[in-house]
Amino acid sequence: MTARPLSPEEAQAEHARLGVELARHDALYHGEDAPLISDEAYDALRRRFNELETAYPDLTELSSPARAVGAPASSAFEPVQYAVPMLSLGNLFEESEVAEFLGRIERGLRQQACEMVGELKIDGLSLSLRYEHGRLVRASTRGDGSIGEDVTANARTISDIPHQLQGNAPALLEVRGEAFMARSDFEALNAQQVAAGRKAFANPRNAAAGSLRQSDPSVTARRPLRFFAYSWGEVSEDALLAAHLDMVRSFRALGLPTAPETYRLVGAEQLIGYYRHIAKARATLPFDIDGVVYKVNDLAAREVLGFVSRAPRWAIAHKFPAEQVTTILRDIEIQVGRTGALTPVARLEPVIVGGVEVSNATLHNEAEIQRKDLRVGDTVVLQRAGDVIPQIVDRVLEQRPADSKPYIFPTRCPVCGSAAEREADVGDQGGAVRRCTGGLLCDAQAVEGLLHLVSREALDIDGLGEKQVSFLFETGRIRTPADIFRLEATDAAREDPLHRCEGFGAVSVRKLFSSIASKRKSPLERMIYGLGIRHVGRTNALRLARHFGSYQAFIEGASSSEGRARLYGVEGVGDAAISSLSRYFSDPASAAIAIDLGSVVEAIPLKVARTDTVISGKTVVFTGTLQRMTRDQAKAGAEELGAKVSGSVSKKTSYVVAGPGAGDKLEKAEALGVTVLTEDAWLALIGDASTATEGS
Asked: Which residue, 220, 430, 523, 693, is the most exposed by fewest CB within 10 angstroms?
């Protein structure tokens, strides 16, 4: 049965949702080295996004995530502007697509049998090395492709990277390659981490990325990083060569390491043969790869072919499918989260997959278990998708025990015994998630709620991590958010004060109490967010803080049907959030906790946005790297003066503030005739705005 075509409105909604999701995963993968989904899942999202833009061209925007490369550079490092952008690669997954790729190249060059190069796709972190007259002057990460992060001090600690090139070095050579960690080195590093009581790294790629982006170069120096060169960026004329393989040979002559298994190839048959050869040899390599790369060998031909959005036309990655193994599903356990969601977790017979031992895998929800018909005792097919996240993809029916029984999802919370119900709630996709109804009477929800309150995005209390909060809760020292602020007083009255407990010394306890005391005055929006009400994230918390003005007004308004009814007129606050507020404050225990928090923490109200300035009611977009303030500071300042800050450029945009590295948003602003300001011009404007009113 063929699916009906989407209406323009449906396509726009899905396109917007996918855009947000892609941007989030880009930031997690490239900016935080903490991917949440597999490479395969990410690729599927991007393919669907591109399909929508192909079918509905009006959806295509210059600022589209489909055109994004990597993620914005972190403010923790100095920005590096690239003269030649560091682009990413397109992907293909089926052998049948190889001939299509070659066909596009041959049509673009108007020739047959174009000479190609096959290379390993190293699973590491992209790195640019700038050499001037043979001397290493700078090393930087990819960033967003236009602006990277200066990690020179860290890169100098990598033994593979020469500080001075050998032989007759060119005047300028920007070498691009991959920083990575060999499997044996990764295993040794994780053994050291565990021995020292620290968290082990998920995989070599994350370990390499985290090591290279350290603020302290001495930490990087202790990490066994390697480097392979694979291309160049900006080069002087005396470095120019005719072919990619000539480039690789020149790298080796200059003392730069390059990857093995690099070959000259012609035609689809040879490319597929190379792919199969490397796939077979993958397990024997000393480092992780996630595919191979095909490149046009002739560098002049590359100039003719050019680029499409985020990727070159002359190169593509042929990705490997995720490595799969079989193991036994020993048990299904239920974990209870902050919002009461019951999440099933598979306990597996430990098995090595992707070079890592795996014994657990999330099963997501009740519907997922039913869809796959997973049963305790089943032989299951497991993969670490993208070599990161373990997932069960299937079960082997032929090996199912004769006495196996369908798994029955619990209807009561395994922690507190309260009913676990499906909620017909906006955002729960048809009630796919079963939730504990015990609320804060459930110990699991209570602990997760406390951890949420003290998190960086909420009250940001140093010294209260998962271990500390769990201990304080289990020993009865804290049960509610307000108890945290009474901890010092109650601790003084106990026979077993904290400084006598294992893991707590006198100095650490004093620091903890000082940290708690420093948060007795906290921003209103952080207090609202810290309550952990479903569908009230940081953005909605900010909207609610702006609407109510004070914590007391928030409590009174959210507790009454009349107050909640008025929320329907607040832009951005939807049905899901209002319904969640109703459920939260209808529960006497939850309402009491919120009220109690207000008795020990003074809420700092938001500054009221002005309505009398020259930018009041205007829409502003910030793009590029700001030099004199952070993006958050710029946004807060604009909103204080009554402006609305947007993430995308449209005809309704009043100003685009563009810093170095501004790309698609700047181009779109210029195309639409939107006023573009430098950072200095913007600061001059808001400096005037802070004292002048519109029309004065």
From this structure: 430
